[in-house]
């Protein structure tokens, strides 16, 4: 099977400007995803999809293929699945080939490493699912006790039936992460989303699953990097 990795790295970002190429422990953040994908040895092509010439040049300098800029689904309203499909169609036209499997990697997930990628791809291949969403297990932030609070400070619990339960008696809950989504190309093109009717979750550690969207995320990710690789 021909497997392409598409690393989404849009140039615009409102909460953290130019986040995909900001320095992260000595390299542009984008570089960590490129190197992880290449080192995993799981892909026939590692493509950076961007609308920004500066990001494209950084992608090439770290070994990714960036033969074109993204011509559609490049604004902040486009869903990631839409952006990946746009890049996939461009890639198949450019190289004159059809891919069987596509992995979507977000450039703002620098803690997802080659070992994470290898395990996720192998897990996907051995399953019969059409797509696989990376996820992490909630820990100390227990969503079973989540509440909405009005202007008077009065809570409305999302799961009122669990408020009096001990945390150790509640089943684990998982949150999707943009770190690594995988799909069979035919299914992705048909459904136009990685959330196909036959999708599964693949668990990453909460550190590997972390994505960076604002300054606080960046500070936390840098601290986690020191813990992970100390």
Give a description of the structure.
The structure is a single chain. With 230 residues, the chain is of the alpha/beta class. It has a single domain, classed as Alpha-Beta Complex (Spore Coat Polysaccharide Biosynthesis Protein SpsA, Chain A), CATH 3.90.550. The chain is built from 6 helices and 10 strands. Helix 1 packs across helix 4 (114-126). It is globular and about 60 Å long. The model has no long low-confidence stretch (mean pLDDT 94).
What is the highest CATH level, the class?
Alpha Beta
- Low-confidence parts: none
Per CATH, what is the topology? Spore Coat Polysaccharide Biosynthesis Protein SpsA, Chain A
Main β-sheet, in a few words?
6 strands, mixed
Number of helices: 6
Mean pLDDT reading: 94
What coarse outline follows from CA principal-axis ratios? globular
Terminal CA distance reads: 37 Å
The amount of helix comes to 25-40%
What is the name of the CATH architecture?
Answer: Alpha-Beta Complex
């Amino acid at each position: 099977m021909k497997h392409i990795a598409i690393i989404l790295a849009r140039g615009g970002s409102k909460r953290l400007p130019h986040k995909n190429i900001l320095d992260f422990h000595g390299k542009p953040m984008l570089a960590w995803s490129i190197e992880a994908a290449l080192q995993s040895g799981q892909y026939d092509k590692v493509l950076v999809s961007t609308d920004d010439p500066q990001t494209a040049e950084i992608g090439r300098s770290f070994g990714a293929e960036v033969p074109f800029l993204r011509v559609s689904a490049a604004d902040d309203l486009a869903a990631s699945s839409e952006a990946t499909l746009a890049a996939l169609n461009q890639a198949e036209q450019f190289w004159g080939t059809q891919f069987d499997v596509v992995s979507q990697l977000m450039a703002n997930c620098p803690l997802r490493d080659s070992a994470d990628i290898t395990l996720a791809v192998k897990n996907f291949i051995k399953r019969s699912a059409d797509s696989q969403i990376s996820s992490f297990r909630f820990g100390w932030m227990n969503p079973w006790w989540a509440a909405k609070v009005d202007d008077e400070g009065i809570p409305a619990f999302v799961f009122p039936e669990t408020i009096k339960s001990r945390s150790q008696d509640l089943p684990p809950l998982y949150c999707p992460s943009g770190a690594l989504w995988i799909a069979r190309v035919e299914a992705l093109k048909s459904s136009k989303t990685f959330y196909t009717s036959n999708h599964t979750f693949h668990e990453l550690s909460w550190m590997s699953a972390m994505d960076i969207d604002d300054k606080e995320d960046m500070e936390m990710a840098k601290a986690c990097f020191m813990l992970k690789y100390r």
